[in-house]
Amino acid sequence: MGEYRRLWWTLIAILTITFAILGLSGVEVYRQAPPIPAKIVTTSGTELMTREDIMEGQAAWQSVGGMQLGSIWGHGAYQAPDWSADWLHRELVAWLDLAAAQEHGKPFDRLDGAQKAALTYRLQGEYRRNMLDRASGTLTVSDRRAEAIRRTALHYQQLFGDDPELRPLREDYAMKEDTLPDPDRRAALADFLFWTAWAAATERPGTVATYTNNWPPEPLIGNRPTTENVLWSLACVVLLIAGIGALIWGWAFLRDHDETAAPVAAADPLRGIALTASQKALGKYLFVVIALFIFQIFIGGLTAHYTVEGQSFYGVDLSQWLPYSLARTWHLQSAVLWIATAFLAAGLFLAPVINGGADPRHQKLGVDILFWALVLVVAGSFLGNYLAIAHLLPRDWSFWIGHQGYEFLDLGRVWQIALFAGLCLWLALMLRAMIPALRADGDRNLLALLCLSTVAIGLFYGSGLFYGERSSITVMEYWRWWVVHLWVEGIFEVFATAAIAFIFATLGLVSKRIATAASLVSASLFMVGGVPGTFHHLYFSGTTTPVMAIGAAFSALEVVPLVILGHEAWERWDQRHKAPWMTALRWPLACFVAVAFWNMLGAGVFGFMINTPVALFYLQGLNTTAVHAHAALFGVYGFLALGFTLLVLRYIRPDLILNERLMRVGFWSLNAGLVLMIFTSLLPIGLFQFQASVTTGMWYARSADFLQQPLFQTLRWVRTFGDVVFIIGAVALAWQVVVLGLWKGGRRAPPLPAAE
Predict the structure, then answer these.
(1) What is the pLDDT of residues 305-355, one digit of tens each?
(2) Torsion of Cα atoms, 415 then 418 then 420 then 426, to 10°
(3) CA–CA distance from 423 to each of 16, 454, 481, 592 (Å)?
(4) C-alpha dihedral over 246, 252, 253, 254, to 10 degrees?
(5) Which value, to the nearest 10 degrees, does the dihedral of the CA atoms of residues 351, 354, 357, 363 take?
(6) C-alpha to C-alpha distance for 651 and 640, rounded to whole angstroms
(7) Residue 580, class by beta-carbon neighbours within 10 Å (0-12 exposed, 13-18 middle, 19+ buried)?
(8) Are residues 702 and 622 in contact, defined by beta-carbon separation less than 8 angstroms?
(9) Using CA of residue 479, residue 481, residue 484, residue 486, what is the dihedral sign?
(10) Torsions phi, psi of 47, nearest 5?
(11) Where is the Nitric oxide reductase subunit B cytochrome c-like domain (predicted)?
């Protein structure tokens, strides 16, 4: 540890405390997950459904795309409704109509104010009261509610089938005809959707909040933010301000401002290291990165277009072969895969550099095996997704080789295990180079941090294997966010920080001492908020108030380190003038500057916009979430991946000069397209939805009646301009990397002198 002992112990303490909080709170998540009744019966003794029916319905929901077709408790796609909110509202309206007809002989909307108020008061009492007998596991509902359930279930059985009367609604929801062909499975799906709505309406024993902390907003039964929700939202803002203040104070007064700049080498130090066989083999990784990147963009364009036409692409009906749920699955899955592949390629490029410029024995063979394993996972998982959604797989195979139904973890479990095995192989290839280097003399602190983040990338993806096909959706959400938030947003961030610092230190652009200290401090800042901050995704997923409190308090601190990232990125960008050979790194550095900007805007501003419990209560599952997702996933991790891709390309094709015109078009079009996409379409729609969610309810903000208004149709068409600009940038970048770079078709530089 040496001179960094205090920084290391700070990081170790933070990791110990934060993972203890995450783990102990996870025990609470398991214990307090909303119960699934053993059976549901009426007061007259009729059995409506069983636990097995509900779990079979969950499996049926997963098989049609799950979170890629509408959402549950706010998590999932945004075109179809949130099924929990939609079911709940439809059932409440059915109960009121039944009560009005039975007691007053006319529809509810024709009653006077006093009559409506009386029935609504009784409705709230019946629905919020917990009638589950915990000893027997039996849930009892009134005969009137049973009839309301039956009527609501019939709607969903017709919607997920091919009933001609509901075809216009299916088109509005971007659902294909006969989404779930088996009528028995449609009935089970309705049972599952009822249970998710029951948990959202029924008070948890000993509290005055439902199992989902009163989400979704539903005025008919008094689903509004709890007192704790408001209090922890205020605490969230206070902690953010305090955290930023402390960071700025520390940056101004505790940082060593007298550190002398490192002398710049006359030539690129990495050019003095001969390319190894494993590094030369990385070109095919870069090709896959770009191929998946382009595929993701075009399939994303189709997904966005489905929000306008629903089942067609400019009049051509594609929905029976490539429905919205499949297009969105591939769009998200390809994003994760191309970004991860770029990170893997960057690590494999650094491995021989770390090992003194030589490959460990059989390193190239391992690199080649890993590549074809990744190709197999991509092809197999995509094919499995298609077969599952087309219902061409046996029922019991869908989860395992088809579609898990969970956003970002859609690939079948077999392919998920294969991808984890591939990451473990990558980890082994990295450690073969790192461990001997760690044993060498000298300052190895930065390398140790890079090594630890590499181990974490290899192993933490395995947390997504800790739930099963029939796990409680609350338990599944806990582990899913270990992958989506902790693995991607936390560990990848630390790896990127350490890897970039290692590269810059190796290039002599920053002293190893500064690079090491900055990386350790950054890792501590990322982890202190990032690890327990995982819970800010679980406010309304069937968890308790303590989980909300932890998520709100710590996730506010996630924004804090983003304040200084822009300064660090600009310092790196400013170093491009230090030596003539630095001009070759201009565009990778530009990508890293873009990362800092989008970290501030996408992860910081747009992330905090939906972060506090009271804000997310009304915003969860709206297009405001898509704003944060696009700005943070592509803006941060996408540009990081592209920066790594260009950096690796620069060294495996050392005599290549990047085409300035192509790179300017590519870089600025990607940024401009993302800005247009957000500010001309996604954000305005999300803000209008927010108003509808507050004033009327979540069911309305996600309904066809609201989203199919001419204004929103126009705003979705307007998004096309941003999409086209973005596509132009992507094609320009792809042409540079693949055609002019990997295929050696472009203008080439004269050989530069190697470093002495």
Answers:
(1) 999 998 999 888 888 899 999 999 999 999 999 999 999 999 999 999 999
(2) -130
(3) 24, 10, 18, 25
(4) 80
(5) -30
(6) 17
(7) exposed
(8) yes
(9) negative
(10) -85, 125
(11) 37-217
